[in-house]
Amino acid sequence: MPALDKVLNDIADTMAKETRRGKVADYIPQLAKVDPARFGIAVVTNDGETFTAGDADEPFSIQSISKVFTLTMALGLVGDSLWKRVGREPSGNPFNSIVQLEREQGVPRNPFINAGALVVTDVVLSQHQPREALGQILHFLRFLAGDESIVVDRAVARSETETGFRNIALANYMKAFGNLEHDPDKTLGVYFHQCAVAMSCRQLAMAGRFLAADGRNPETGGRVVSSQRARRINALMLTCGHYDGSGDFAFHVGIPGKSGVGGGILAVVPGKASIAVWSPGLNQVGNSQLGAIALERLARTMGWSVFGP
Amino acid sequence: MPALDKVLNDIADTMAKETRRGKVADYIPQLAKVDPARFGIAVVTNDGETFTAGDADEPFSIQSISKVFTLTMALGLVGDSLWKRVGREPSGNPFNSIVQLEREQGVPRNPFINAGALVVTDVVLSQHQPREALGQILHFLRFLAGDESIVVDRAVARSETETGFRNIALANYMKAFGNLEHDPDKTLGVYFHQCAVAMSCRQLAMAGRFLAADGRNPETGGRVVSSQRARRINALMLTCGHYDGSGDFAFHVGIPGKSGVGGGILAVVPGKASIAVWSPGLNQVGNSQLGAIALERLARTMGWSVFGP
Amino acid sequence: MPALDKVLNDIADTMAKETRRGKVADYIPQLAKVDPARFGIAVVTNDGETFTAGDADEPFSIQSISKVFTLTMALGLVGDSLWKRVGREPSGNPFNSIVQLEREQGVPRNPFINAGALVVTDVVLSQHQPREALGQILHFLRFLAGDESIVVDRAVARSETETGFRNIALANYMKAFGNLEHDPDKTLGVYFHQCAVAMSCRQLAMAGRFLAADGRNPETGGRVVSSQRARRINALMLTCGHYDGSGDFAFHVGIPGKSGVGGGILAVVPGKASIAVWSPGLNQVGNSQLGAIALERLARTMGWSVFGP
Amino acid sequence: MPALDKVLNDIADTMAKETRRGKVADYIPQLAKVDPARFGIAVVTNDGETFTAGDADEPFSIQSISKVFTLTMALGLVGDSLWKRVGREPSGNPFNSIVQLEREQGVPRNPFINAGALVVTDVVLSQHQPREALGQILHFLRFLAGDESIVVDRAVARSETETGFRNIALANYMKAFGNLEHDPDKTLGVYFHQCAVAMSCRQLAMAGRFLAADGRNPETGGRVVSSQRARRINALMLTCGHYDGSGDFAFHVGIPGKSGVGGGILAVVPGKASIAVWSPGLNQVGNSQLGAIALERLARTMGWSVFGP
């Protein structure tokens, strides 16, 4: 097996020279300010070693990657009854998902499209006030990453709140179908803030360890979720983690992953490692362009794939 | 690890008692005649052992499972240029796929929906006459399974040809967009016959061995396809192999699989085993109802999952 | 020509006995309280006579019928530039229109579906505050009807505001595409109130006179809109005035009309008469069931149709 | 009222100078050969006068205009039971209609989209052989136009048969839903030939007289269809006669009309006149570009509109 530190440095070097870097998300004004030249990557192996390259300690907006963690929390709260309110199928929709919301009566296709994540947040909100729910999400992220310094980027949160008309539409649309328990504004408030959490590649890879370790914290051996639940979350990441590019990511990279429009991707090699990569430019379906290429290269070099022996 | 023969027998016994068996496909008159009480299962491990239970030697119509093998052939013929004509994303469509054909200008979402498989067959047809192309498909299946007795069920083929209006529509629709090279009737002729191939669970599990063995025939060590190609076909099976139930199958069973409306499912445990199961009754999205349940039970009992260590 | 008073009384008598009266709209709680047994009809001819039968002086919630009047106002404000923001085609959608909003980038198909009417209201709002804009709408309705007693039903307006999640979704969705100038809450505020205007059949028929009289107030001869504009509004009512039942209404009744979920329909016989009918029960596509039947009978008896000599 | 001969000559002169003439249909190779500079117009008034200008005696392919006449025949054969198999609503679909066929289980939205016209032709075919059915269609057209010289353009018919994959798809798709009685190839054979009928503006305007004269042949006074049926066919032309440009045609021209991709439009002024116009270039939604403009000008000049007095 090649030495991970060398592999990561090679990848970071190659990515630094890449000129086709995709397009930084501009629909959230605050995200549009991020420098497209940034690139970071971090790998935390199940035996506890951490390898990084590039801007691996620079915090970025995790955006939709937060959905993996709120899903984990919601399953902890209500178990499989969550699936009455959210599906488990890829959306298969190049546009976005409001079409299917209409056709499927307000039940989002999966927890990783925006509509589905709003339902998940609605569950996490449960009886709490938005501020407390957000506190619990932060608490969970800090616990998983073993890092108390993780915070919400208030400027990003404000920017999302002011310009998130599409998400406001989705939330109200589901409310019309009775698939949102709380006042849409409350659920949206928590959602906009969870997306605005800032984490570095190192922190994110640490937070993802339980998915690589069949549900346990590999450091302490403590169980975060059951083995079955960890596997199922991985399955959802593989089939639905990259919107309408999920099939392509599975085809090229071959491991579960979840992307965010901040340019981050969390990826999981079951039994081996948790990976986070960050490059702000996005491809046409809204996933980090260089992030996916870097992961494909890393997986191929290391022989990591869930589809081979 | 539990003994496979005992596990399979337990599963077959449980399935025999199951009363909710789904609904046998009736849109092809010949398929509607199959006894819903049948159940068979076969596992071929990478170290060459075969285990079976129930009606594992009874041939059934493989239908869409044939798409895995014609895809393998087409990739052998034209390589990655195939992907200009077919996508690699789940269709995410509860109805069927003609909607997306229209929206996406005649390019099917993936090679495992009917439209995509027709394009694949159009490639396999290449310069040949339909009869020769069909001969090559049979030849490939017999080679993979190591069994010269595999044949087309002519009654089923005739039944499909006479009632396959929807597939005729799909083929002509793609022809209108220029995404079919041959006369639609020719491509359809081969397609209807490849779907009408009859195989037993044992034969099917044998034919799938190269996908469990990273592209090699585990018996001879001979390479069927490259390691990368085998992994990619597995990835496509996982994300697209069960129509609009693919996410659910990944979630519950956790291994790549391809179903057919004849009630069969071919499933692959990379590095470990090739599996075929058969139960004619289908669930609401058109996949074998007991087949999926049996595979979920088998995978859980054996600890087989691509999403865990 | 039969005597109108007798014709209307016959129709009202027949409708009183009708047992299949449709279903009163229940998604706005306040509307659900209306007695389904009510029926009223009023005809104002171009030579100034008024005929009524049944509950013709009972105010009801005009709902979407208000869209005809705000469209007239918006065209007065911005002329044909309105059509950059709204289409003029039937939506042809049995579900509702958010699907097409997505496909057509936030431009509603016509001004009579909810999304289109929201854009129209956004134009009427122009530089004003919601309260003033609503005042102008009321002023215009009172002027057209020659009746200062027309008011907003505050209980209905409040009920709509509290439960109008679907409209909130539509407004925010269009805002995301840049097709709403104002804060969605402001536009929605005016919209919910315009829909909650209460008018009787008599008042409504009076307000519609200018459409029957080629743009003039037939009483005073004063021009309300140009002849061309009146004809075009009639054309839009004919092709789009009854949602996905517009074709059927044109087929059976044969004159332009606009329905509202309060159970009212405003219909126009160009050159002859303005008609309003009210029966709270709705058919499957959301139009007054007995209202349409009454209009069909009236039109046939009187020989009124735009499709014959 | 202006003199019609002068009005038509003015229009023809203006159209001759127009440089933006749209795009001649090229998906049927034979149609692509037509000279885009051609323009003809003919008006037959209810009192029996005929006025023409330009290439009014040049035969062109009537294409979808034939649907008006086969609809009239089918209603004569099976009456209102036709509406169990075809709807009466605008399709509202910018792409084409196969999407709605899927959603609405093989029942086309109206008789003027291709799918609906195929069902209508399937009815006309009834117990006959294709050749006889086509003979009856020709017979009916000759009778209406009072002109025995009307024939099918065999080259166009052959061209359509060889390249009509989309129509083949539609027919087979409906057959799959059980909404085609005959072998799709037979229905398609008649359909391709009815579309290939060649008629001049003069012949077409003559053939449309019964729709302008409330169902009668204005020359003989003989009844072709009932007054109600004539009005209903006009209503369908107005709401559905120009595909997804029907609303716009009603808005700008204000009278019922049916277009064909050969560049012809048949239009009806109830009680006054039957009009045919021809200019081969099509606009973006597939209707004759100059044809619609010429009709708008003619209607405005003459004060013809169903939406005014």
Automatic annotation (TrEMBL), chains A, B, C, D:
Belongs to the glutaminase family. This is Glutaminase. NCBIfam families: Gln_ase (TIGR03814), PRK00971.1-1 (NF002132), PRK00971.1-2 (NF002133). Substrate binds at residues 64, 114, 160, 167, 191, 243, 261. One of its GO terms (molecular function) is glutaminase activity. One of its GO terms (biological process) is glutamate biosynthetic process. InterPro entries: Beta-lactam/transpept-like, Glutaminase. Homotetramer. The keyword Nucleus does not apply. Keywords: Acetylation, Hydrolase. HAMAP family: Glutaminase. It comes from Pseudoxanthobacter soli DSM 19599.
